[in-house]
Amino acid sequence: MKRLTTIFLSLTALFLILAGCSSTSKEKEGNDDALIIGIDDKFAPMGFRDEDNKIVGFDIDYAKAAAGKMGVKVKFQPIDWQTKESELSSGRIDLIWNGYTITDERKKKVLFTKPYLKNAQVVVTLKDSKLSKLADLNGKVVGLQSLSSASDALDANPIKSKIKEVTEFSDNVMALNDLKSGRLDAVVIDEVVIDYYMTKEKDSFKLLDESLAPEEYGIGVKKGNEELLEKLQKALDEMNEDGTAAKISEKWFGENKVLN
Questions:
Q1: What span, in angstroms and rounded, lies between the C-alpha atoms of 101 and 98?
Q2: Which residues are CB-contacts of 3 (< 8 A; sequence separation ≥ 6)?
Q3: Which InterPro entries has this protein been placed in (predicted)?
């Protein structure tokens, strides 16, 4: 009797293991056609959380429309922006798509689509600040998002050597909050981003007269995955041709800013 009980328990355990494997396999199969997109969920208006904590933004709508053209589902995965390329190369995400600036350094790590939006790195300060040009940053404390193109743009400008201190933040929201609290004199930030915040807080900020560097946004694909890159670019091209991209741009920017 004891032996029969042991056999029964062993068979039961085996059944549960197989059932679990089957369930996991089905779940994985069900997600095979979903594109996992890595985003910074505090990067308005490209991708951010609204009052209901829902992820929204230009890039969110843009990605959903492209996925529709490709016939796949899409899932947005908030990530630490400092580790975005690692997330992509490890396979935890399929795309980096959230105001991702195309640079020569990043081209060594990822494949890029054609540029779809123009941007620039600019310097923002408080509305009542006496700062007006880049030279005025001499001896000042400046903030920016860590491992961002803002950091690259500042490093490439001679004013960097004259700045008293550069403070890095995990996202732009934290940097702007420190600016408003007086802990920073200025913030280097994407023009697309600060334009959005300035429409929300018209009396809080102003831009310096000079920008640091023009740039363009692209979508990052894992090295070696040319097939996905080709399918994605085809979908983006179709969106330009049929007016889908223009409609999304007009919704978020009031005009068509998408590059053809």
A1: 9
A2: none
A3: Iontro_rcpt_C, Solute-binding_3/MltF_N
- What is the per-residue DSSP string for 104-141? HHHHTTEEE----EEEEEEEEEETT-S--SGGGGTT-E
pLDDT tens for 15-67 read 444 444 444 333 333 445 789 999 999 999 999 999 999 999 999 999 999 99
Minimal CA–CA distance to 81: which of 53, 46, 108?
Answer: 46
d(CA 69, CA 221): 17
Rounded Cα–Cα distance for residues 243 and 255 (Å): 12
**202 occurs within a structural domain:** yes
148, part of any domain: yes
Q: With CA atoms as reference, report the closest residue to 154 among 141, 164, 139, 144.
A: 144
Pair (123, 237) in one structural domain: no
Which CATH number covers residue 169?
3.40.190.10
Domain around 167: 119-214
Please compute the mean of the pLDDT values over residues 66-95 and round it to a whole number: 96
Q: The tokens of 140 are what?
A: 């000042």
Domains contained in the chain, number: 2
> Contact, 39 vs 79, CB < 8 A?
yes
